[in-house]
Amino acid sequence: MNGPATDTPASTAADVSPEALLASIDAARGQGLAAVAAAATSDELAQVESTLFGRKAALGQIKQGLGSLPPDQRATVGRALNEAQQDLRAAHAEAADELAASARREQLQREWLDLTETPPGPERGHLHLVTQTTERLEDVFVGMGFTVSEGPQAETDWYNFEALNLPAAHPARSMWDTLYLDLGERTELGDGEGGEASNVVLRTHTSPVQIRVMEVQPPPIYTICPGRVFRRDTADASHMPVFHQIEGLVVDRGIAFADLAGTLEEFTSAYFGKAISSRLRPSYFPFTEPSAEFDITCVICEGAGCQTCQRTGWIELGGCGMVHPNVLANCGIDFEEWTGFAFGFGIDRLALMRHGIDDLRDMYTNDIRFLSQF
Amino acid sequence: MKVLLSWLREFAPIEGDPAELADHLSDLGMAVEEMRMLPPLDGVVVARVAGLRPHPEADRIQLVDVELPGATGEGTGGALQVCCGAFNMSVGDMVPFATVGTTMPGGLVIGERRMRGQLSQGMCCSAAELELGADAEGIMILPSEFELGAPLMSQLGLAGDVLYDLEVNPNRPDAMSVAGVARDLAARLGVPFRIPAPVVSETGEDVSTVASVEIIDADLCGRFGVRVIRDVSIGQSPLWMQARLTLCGMRPINSVVDVSNYVMLELGTPNHTYDLALVPGGHLGTRRSAGGERLVTLDGSEREMLRGDGLIVDRDDRPIGISGVMGGENTEIGDSTTAVLLELAWWDRLSISRTSQRLGLRSEASMRFERGTDHELVPIALDRFCELLDRVTPGGVSVCRGRLDGRGDLPPTTRVRVRPARMSHLLGRRFSSDELRGLLDPIGLQCTESDDAAPRGAEPDDGALEVTIPSFRPDVVTETDVAEEVARHYGYQRLGRTVPRSPEPGRLTPAQRLRRDLRRVLVGAGLSEDMPNPFLAPDAVRQAGIDGADPVRLLNPLATEESVLRPSLLPGLIAAAAYNSSHRNDSVSLFEIGVVFGPPPAGDADTAAADTSAAAVLPTETEHLGAIWADGEAADAVHLTELIATAFGLRFSLTNANDLDGMHPVRAAQVLLDGQAVGVVGEVDPVVCERHGLLQRCAWLQVNVEPLLAAASAAAERPYRLVSTYPSSDIDLAFAVPDGVQASQVRSTLVASGGDELRSVDLFDIYRGDQMDPGTRSLAYRLRLQADDRTLTDEQVADIRQRCIDAVEHAHSAVLR
Ligand SMILES: [Zn+2]
């Protein structure tokens, strides 16, 4: 390592001839350049820097001696001195840049990373298809001015049947395979009769929610009732004992059958797209009159006819109709003043249709390989 | 309900493209489930069996010489020779014969071929092969009067016929007959409809001399018609009748049964026949059973009656049939029957429904009685039976003069006041009185101008009609019912489409919106939503360690495995975790937001007896959030509570607890919100995990959704707290804390004593080990202090620090380290 050049000939004041000064300048420059070139690290270079450019540096001392020269020689030697100093500064700057660049190269080499080696990080989970479908349906109806109503899943016979114009002996009750709850022991209070025991059912549709809404909310009513429903059905590819339904209810002044048809058409094109339309066919439900079956253009073939729609171009979606006057009366609503319509259809099937799932049971295995696809 | 186009045409001149007619039927509410064009069977002709010979090489095939005008072949005497696998025909029989080149309904083309060396020049056909009936065993034997060589279908009267399978709604008893369907379709097409009057030549004695009827319970039987037919010989009904019955889904039996079924299909009037010789004095009575009576029905089973069941009884009050459901074996028609006592009655719908359902004897007849038959058709149907039986019995029968017509309680004729304005209101299109008449009259709803000048409803009464409802439409009782008929015949599709607008904007409630947010927080935390079955086996509840709950039971479960309602989400979620684990997905994290059930709210005996409101009798339903981490630790669940808290601006506190259902004995805590317990967090009891085949730890979180969302809803309105512009200071405090003290308690003490300037408390280090006294651990907290309005001085910071130290040391027997 080259130390600072403190004992160079130029520092001796004995020979101050211009020639001698020029020779010392040249020598100092040569030594300085050699020292810069020899610095291998930025630390070494910093040390070299302090010996080259300080007051005590060789060139600095020569500069201090310039004053004793005659003016004409002073200019010549001064110029040489400046040039030597510039050379040394340039060499130093270049060396500094080079050292910084190589340090960065080394740094980068150490930091090199294959980003494809990244181990898996936290994953996002998945909403169940039924939730996704329900929310999508709710969004469409909310956009059409509806609220969303909820109610209990276990219901009294009154809310599930009787208020819906299905009195106890009504033959149409057999349209629903009903699951009853055994609350016998607990309702056996007081007289020990437990009369209500078999009067509590798991709701077979979300219509009881409609009744509950009408009981407490004076018209106008524009609401949908999505939710879980229960039937005493053995599970197969298209049936589950537990599934999901969405029903809609409108009660207002001057509501007509045409309003039902128009509302369902608006829903159909909003939910399924402009290519899909709806149609109504006469049907029967005890709680509506007139009643209708609600079909939509087959979403697979868009009406051309295919296997799914049995070549009819239509798919049966649900039931609907004008709210039966007896139902309105059961809720204390004057059916001369107010009229209404209701509709309902399955949510699960819409999820199956959208994603081409053949077997309803697949949706309820809770297999992560199913859940994580959606 | 299956109907043949040719049969419909016997009631109205119905023309047009069969597919268009199908559209009309569907549009009228009789959805066409299937439309079948009967095969034209070109090439299938009537032939005669001229000879039968054994096949020289095969036992199971015989050779038939088939006589067909204009055809000659390899058979005896120039007849066609056919190899045939059936042995039911005799020489001289007329049979359907598929000539060479015929395409069979199944697509098979008949060709000339050799079977075991013998030439076969066509095929003798069974009913099944021609798709005209179910019988695939024998060759169809045709009536001898059929024209030799003529096309089969024209001889059967089925050429070009169309079979519609209709779905008939329960409110359309009229559509349960060929005539009723024809009436509706004729109205739609604008062609006349009529039921032809049967022609009966009465050659026997007066019916009242051989039979009598007594209606004992008038509320059970509204009308009881009887005819007596003599000189009956039981045989096969003609092929055209058999073909119609077969195509419409009924099995041909014998002439009397077939006529009975034919009349039922045609007019919707079920009827019953007795062997007159077996009914003492020809007397039929009908009454309700007092219960306990027994009767062997036609199917050979002994049936016990319950109080109220309808019975047919003989002169000695002995049961000989169940009203409208099934006759008795003791009066059954047999091969030796020569005189038939025919019953055609109108029964109370509910009685029939109750009895047939209880006995599991639902038949084509009971189905029609349940929906309601037409009592005005009783005499016509009686006559139609006689007319047909006379026609199908070789040599005819002798019908006794007159009918017996017993009367009980019949429903009164319904008259409905129909206001055009109301119709327009309900349907959304203006209908004039004339238009309404034009739609209603053709389907038998007779309209007259109403002279009742006392309007009652809100609608204007102008042009009101009085509509008389025919006896075949018992379902139409109100003005609204008439509106459906108007809509049906005008066409649902032709009614307009308008969209009503709610006066209020649509929206979700705050709780509904926040529940959606909650689901997304959970999904963002890596959990997937599952939906396990809410029905459980009682054992599954115990297996999940839920001992405290007495789950609500189903009265009529499909299976024991699904016989109780879940009292907790844990059994379902741990089963789902186990399912995935057994399919090589060991570390799933799942959640569910769903309802759990408990017994109805308890009340003291007095109030419970008085309180019959729904809330008092219904089981309690609580919405829970459940989350499980298979191969997870308590910290996973605790972190989720923190995430939820952050998402909704809430603060949960945890209290360690060691007696929670299904939870790890020493790794579980209650979750509190504003001091109220709202859930549990920690790990699932390892015993429970092991029972489910899960050998790893499972973390678990359960939170009651309602209080959570209520708090979130309130917190959503929290005011802004200005961000202080003054410098903050951090101080670190480490305490030796006894193990019995929860870190959360120390934290609460710090928060309570730190005052307004304490902005955050972070537990940043926990140490257990040699440097600590046994039974203690070091908890190190970093406190950040900051004021809104000034820079805290060193003295103030020191003050707060001392306050915090004193409070923790005092409250928890802790020592500053
Ligand atoms: Zn299709």
Word description of this protein:
The complex is a heterodimer of chains A (374) and B (817). Chain A is α+β, with helices and mostly antiparallel strands. Chain A folds into 2 domains: 9-112, no CATH class; 130-371, Bira Bifunctional Protein, Domain 2 (BirA Bifunctional Protein, domain 2, 2-Layer Sandwich). Chain A has helices at 18-38, 42-53, 58-64, 71-111, 129-143, 157-160, 184-187, 207-216, 257-272, 325-330, 348-355, 368-371, and strands spanning 147-148, 154-156, 181-182, 200-202, 221-230, 242-252, 278-285, 288-297, 314-323, 339-346. In chain A, strand 7 (278-285) and strand 8 form a beta hairpin. Chain A is rod-shaped, with a radius of gyration of 46 Å. Residues 1-13 and 185-197 of chain A have low confidence and may be disordered. The model of chain B has no long low-confidence stretch (mean pLDDT 92). In chain B, strand 3 (44-54) and strand 4 form a beta hairpin. Chain B folds into 6 domains: 2-38 and 161-171 and 182-189, Phenylalanyl-tRNA Synthetase, Chain B, domain 1 (2-Layer Sandwich); 44-156, Nucleic acid-binding proteins (OB fold (Dihydrolipoamide Acetyltransferase, E2P), Beta Barrel), CATH 2.40.50; 202-407, Phenylalanyl-tRNA Synthetase, Chain B, domain 3, CATH 3.50.40.10; 415-490, Phenylalanyl-tRNA Synthetase, Chain B, domain 1 (2-Layer Sandwich); 510-606 and 615-715, Bira Bifunctional Protein, Domain 2 (BirA Bifunctional Protein, domain 2, 2-Layer Sandwich); 729-816, Ferrodoxin-fold anticodon-binding domain (Alpha-Beta Plaits), CATH 3.30.70.380. A 7-stranded mixed β-sheet of chain B has the order 27-31-32-36-35-34-33. The N and C termini of chain B lie far apart (90 Å). Chains A and B meet through helix 5, strand 1, strand 2, strand 3 and strand 6 of A and helix 7, helix 10, helix 12, helix 13 and strand 27 of B. Bound molecules: zinc ion. The site of zinc ion has 8 residues of chain A, from loops.
